[in-house]
Amino acid sequence: MFGYVTQNPVNFVDPSGLDPGDQFHSAGEAAGDAINFSNPTSIKQNLEYGGYIVRNSNGTYSATYPIGGSTSGLNLPKPPKGTVADYHTHGASQIGYDSESFSKEDIWSNAIWGIDGYLDSTELRRAIEKRVNMSKKIITFIVSSLLASIVSASDKLPENGVLPNEEAAIRTAESILVNVYGDKILNQRPFKARLENDVWKITGTFHCPSGANCKGGVATIELNKRDGKVKNLVHNK
Questions:
Q1: With contact defined as beta carbons under 8 Å apart, do 107 and 142 qualify?
Q2: Which of 86, 94, 162, 220 is the most buried if burial means most Cβ atoms within 10 Å?
């Protein structure tokens, strides 16, 4: 009877009718919907919740139902076939715990399975919703698996940062932008990166034939060189 709320109408709500398991055009949409679905319960219980994003045979993406963890961790089972990412929440804010960022365990887990990671982030969500005209079900994320490959074995950030050069900054920026805007954003290649005060500013290229009266704009994203965090994201018109 209550399948649309994970057989649990007391703890979960789904006002949009788009609970985990529904099909979306992108992994980002599926993750955003699943996080929106899980986050109220996660905050109320102060527990982490999460699951996986799977690519379906028809090319769409769906989220598995959320699994509950503890106040400071979540142990997901082995990813099912077709998994492209995982998603999770960090519960309520806690003193001494950085609920806005991926933990080193999150990063290493994504690296081991070779998948992307999506995290609910209140601070980044506010920045995204303020600057980008997006559906409310899209939640801010960081593509952690790309960063994990360059984190040292000592679990410390590299001396030169996780985005030490232009190539790493552009690769990470493109992955994030594709999940927000879809593959069409790659039409703005080549992306150009400029480092200012340890923040990479990556901007797309506006293509307009000579003499044509073109309208539109390009995406610009700012990433912290040291830890890869999104500082700003905007698409000019």
A1: no
A2: 86
Give the whole-angstrom CA distance, residue 39 versus residue 67.
12
Contact of 202 with 97, CB cutoff 8 Å: no
pLDDT digits (tens, 9 = 90+) for 145-174: 444 444 433 445 677 888 889 988 898 888
Tokens of 76: 């997901």
Alpha helices in the chain (DSSP H): 27-45, 104-113, 122-131, 144-148, 166-181
- pLDDT, residue 121, reads 59
The reply to whether the predicted model has a pTM over 0.90 is no
| DSSP-derived secondary structure for 62-104 | EEPPPEE--SS-----PPPTTEEEEEE---S-BTTB-TTS--H
Structure tokens at 199: 């923040």
Interatomic CA distance for residues 119 and 102, integer angstroms:
7
Task: Report the SS3 class of residue 220.
Answer: strand
d(CA 76, CA 85): 12
The conformation of residue 20, written as its DSSP 8-state character, comes to: B
Cα separation of 92 and 107, whole Å?
A: 21
Provide the sign of the torsion angle of the four alpha carbons 185, 84, 128, 220, taken in this order: negative
Contact 168, 158 (CB under 8 A): no
Q: Which residues contact 168 (CB under 8 A, 6 or more apart)?
A: 150, 162
CB 50 within 8 A of CB 102: no
Helical (H) or strand (E) element with 117: strand 116-119
Q: Is it the case that residue 13 has pLDDT exceeding 70?
A: no
Give 192's pLDDT tier (boundaries 50, 70, 90): very high
